[in-house]
Model the fold of this input.
Amino acid sequence: MTEKTLYIALNALQEAVFILDANRTVLFENHVAEELFGKGFLGSDFVQVIRHPECMKIIEQVLGGENAVEKSITIEFPVKAVFNVLVSNISVDTGQELKLLVSLEDISDLREAEQMRSDFVANVSHELRSPLTALAGFTETLRGPAKDDEAARERFLGLMEREASRMTRLISDLLSLSKVEANLRIRPSGQVDIAVVIHRIEVTLDAQVKKEKKTLEINIASQNSVITSNEDELTQVFQNLIENAVKYGAQVSKITVDIFEQENVVGIPGTAMAVKICDQGNGIAKEHITRLTERFYRVDTHRSRDKGGTGLGLAIVKHIVNRHRGRLQIDSEVSIGSTFSVYLPIKH
Ligand SMILES: Nc1ncnc2c1ncn2[C@@H]1O[C@H](COP(=O)(O)OP(=O)(O)O)[C@@H](O)[C@H]1O
Ligand SMILES: [Mg+2]
Done:
């Protein structure tokens, strides 16, 4: 192979590649290397490209006689990134002067995904552990101090029921989440009347609405509210959003649900069906809004738990809306209230 074909091959790679001589001088840099670190390092010391002690150390190791050394390093400049760096001696057995190949593969996304996965497992375990610990504690009390106390027994059984149903809710939300995630690329195909779905939710939530001293007003401005969708998923979206409005709204206040058709929604071709859920609640501060759809993210964990929340509702909502190629918009003003707007394409 000629040197030219070698360079063409190195330019076709997806990782950044440099060739250095025994003095660490850059003899070649491929296109990806130029994109990532900038042009013009030919003839310079490699330390000009990446000033990183670990990286220099593995280069020294190969210069000192090792065939190849690999290590992942985190660099802060030009942008923060994690690279898998492989330095190899490419002149072994050629009888020519020593040359090194340094390849850098950007593994930042991979690392981030790993981190998210492990955070998720830690969160789930934590969420499951608290009700379990409570249950174990109540069992002990029922065996011991509360053994012959009828009233205490009733109260503890009630609390145990509450913890058990918290776990059930958590598991069923986790299952919903993984189900939507698995189907994310498949488009929904059923025909669903949003108005019917919303009215059914109104019936389901009636007792909770009354208990929380709220009123629920539903306005349907659209002649025909049938869209291409999945009925179960739509129910989950609007039940979660209306339930949040009920839970986090101010005492004795009104919640309105408006359904109407809307043209020119960013990212949705044709006409979209809009459903706006508006509450007169505490509102949500700006810094929280962008994070609300993260799993287990809550503004006030204590309040959410107290109201039986799992912290997964909005993550499920976001996934379902994405699967429908729709849009979720959150507008809120502290101490005034919040509006959650869902835009869904009418046809796919
Ligand atoms: N309508 C709302 N008004 C104020 N805060 C809200 C509203 N909806 C959601 N939130 C905040 O967003 C958080 C996440 O919501 P969600 O994912 O549904 O979890 P959960 O309701 O189980 O806590 C809630 O804990 C709450 O802090
Ligand atoms: Mg919720």
